[in-house]
């Protein structure tokens, strides 16, 4: 039996019935599996529990519906939420922004159909990329460690992992975390100051700090401007596949998401990888990719 094809049929059924009554036992029956077996197989292929996937697809479709329908409660009820408050809470948890804010900042594009075989070209570790959260982040100060590298001949793909390894080995990363006024110990991996002629750029391992004036010489300092971001969470991956999964997510963003999104890169802002506690797990590691965006003119 082709499990991928079976789960694809389940995804198609969910898409067709996204406004209807969707239950695990019914999906399992259509797939010819027991509920327990279906639940485990679905999560293995999709990267999340089945009803979490259903909830996110409903919210993605609800977000699209908000473009031309003013009453949020009508949309909430249509997509299975009993109250405005329950819908708003679920929407904020999934998208990182309230429905009202999303309506102001986002572009009305119909959610793309999820095709497992297409996603497999980009995501190398058993999961799929969902719709990003749209978050407006205020300006922040960053202090970090840096190297100058280039994308020519793929040098960055060799030099950046080696830079991380060196910083952990020689204690530089520990000293960075010991700086005064750290706002968060979640690490950012940033590409800054790209020379479009040579392909060279600064790669920075950074932390958000409260006051850059107290940071000693020798550290890279950067002011991250206020911006609206599309925030993607990479699918879960084991340590040996973590880097490949991140690269697959970037490729998906460029090849699949951007062309259909109605957004383009925001000028004079920086994209970055954000390593939260999800990245420190011994298995099923994840990180976030923050893309600065503006609506296309």
Descriptive terms for the model:
297 residues, 11 helices, Arc Repressor Mutant, subunit A, alpha+beta, 41% helix, Multidrug-efflux Transporter 1 Regulator Bmrr, Chain A, single chain, 2 domains
Describe this structure as you would to a colleague.
By secondary structure, the chain is α+β, with helices and mostly antiparallel strands. The protein has two domains: 3-108, Arc Repressor Mutant, subunit A, CATH 1.10.10; 136-295, Multidrug-efflux Transporter 1 Regulator Bmrr, Chain A, CATH 3.20.80.10. Helix content is 41%, strand content 22%. Strands 1, 2, 3, 4, 5, 6, 7, 8 and 9 form a nine-stranded antiparallel β-sheet that branches. The radius of gyration is 21 Å and the shape is globular.
Q: Give Rg in angstroms.
A: 21 Å
The separation of the N and C termini measures 48 Å
Structural class category: alpha+beta
**Helical amount:** 40-55%
Quickly count the domains. Answer: 2
Q: Would you identify the CATH H-level superfamily of the largest domain?
A: Regulatory factor, effector binding domain
Order of helices and strands: HHHHHHHHEEHHEEEEHEEE
How many β-strand stretches?
A: 9
């Amino acid at each position: 039996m082709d499990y991928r094809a079976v789960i694809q049929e389940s995804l198609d059924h969910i898409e067709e019935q996204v406004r209807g009554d969707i239950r695990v036992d019914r999906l399992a029956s259509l797939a010819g599996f027991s509920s327990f077996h279906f639940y485990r197989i679905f999560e293995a292929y999709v990267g999340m529990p089945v009803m979490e996937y259903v909830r996110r697809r409903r919210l993605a479709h609800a977000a699209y519906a908000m473009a031309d329908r003013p009453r949020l409660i009508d949309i909430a009820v249509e997509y299975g939420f009993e109250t405005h408050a329950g819908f708003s809470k679920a929407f904020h948890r999934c998208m990182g922004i309230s429905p009202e804010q999303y309506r102001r900042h986002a572009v009305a594009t119909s959610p793309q159909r999820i095709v497992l075989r297409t996603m497999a070209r980009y995501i190398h570790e058993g999961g799929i990329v969902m719709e990003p959260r749209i978050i407006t982040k205020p300006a922040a100060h960053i202090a970090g460690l840096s190297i100058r590298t280039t994308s020519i001949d793929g040098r960055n793909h060799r030099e950046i992992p080696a830079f991380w390894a060196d910083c952990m080995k020689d204690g530089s990363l520990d000293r960075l975390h010991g700086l005064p006024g750290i706002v968060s110990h979640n690490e950012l991996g940033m590409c800054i100051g790209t020379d479009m002629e040579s392909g060279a750029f600064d790669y920075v391992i950074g932390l958000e700090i409260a006051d850059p004036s107290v940071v000693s010489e020798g550290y890279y300092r950067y002011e991250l401007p206020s911006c609206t971001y599309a925030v993607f969470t990479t699918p879960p991956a084991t340590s040996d596949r973590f880097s490949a999964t991140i690269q697959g997510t970037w490729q998906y963003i460029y090849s699949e998401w951007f062309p259909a999104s109605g957004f383009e890169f925001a000028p004079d802002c920086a994209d970055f990888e954000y390593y939260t506690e999800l990245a420190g797990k011994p298995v099923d590691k994840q990180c976030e990719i923050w893309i600065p965006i503006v609506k296309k003119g």
